[in-house]
Amino acid sequence: MLKNRRFSVFPKKSGPGLSSRQKFQPKSQRKTLIPTTSPVLLPTSLFVAPSRQAFEEAKNIPLVIPNVDIVKYVPGETLEYKAVADIVPEIKLGDYKNLKVKREEFKAKPADIDDVLARVRSAYAEKQVVKREAKMDDEVVIDFEGSLDGEKFEGGAAKDFKLKLGSHQFIPGFEEGIVGHSAGDRFDLELTFPKDYHAEKLAGKKTVFNVLLKTG
Q1: Which of 9, 126, 162, 185 is exposed most, by the fewest CB atoms within 10 A?
Q2: From CA 183, how far away is CA 201, in angstroms rounded?
């Protein structure tokens, strides 16, 4: 935390544009203008010369823009404020030059290489709409709505949902149930939520999903 200090934000015998303001603003306005605007303008001014130089000479360099409170303000004479901020701590380096680090050798397995290549191909693959039945690894767009005993449940519906078949984003049987259908097909999937499903209200319950396959 910074100590209470006085820093010259502006050159001596001048203020933040007071000479020009004096021509257009009466003293009554300046009395309210400076205390109101200073907490906004002063924090950023502390990061530029000569204020920053004063901080550095005092070895109190702020990590963030300080919070500023006006302590005393006399128009045309004095602007005293308190700036509070976390400062850069003193850092003493140990004997790092003699540290020894064991270099670990990494040998890529064929499976690792195949996995990277597959992900690169997937990232740069061009997607095309095909006119055939959906199959695993296809990306499809669907509307779906789930229900329990005829009642809808929260989070059980979506429109224009993009789904890669085989990604296991849905409960078992959902993605498999889309395989073999074509764009425009509407069908029901009678499924059961796993007993260890994260939503306790749905765990182990039988459900019906009405699905519209839009593109496949």
Answers
A1: 126
A2: 33
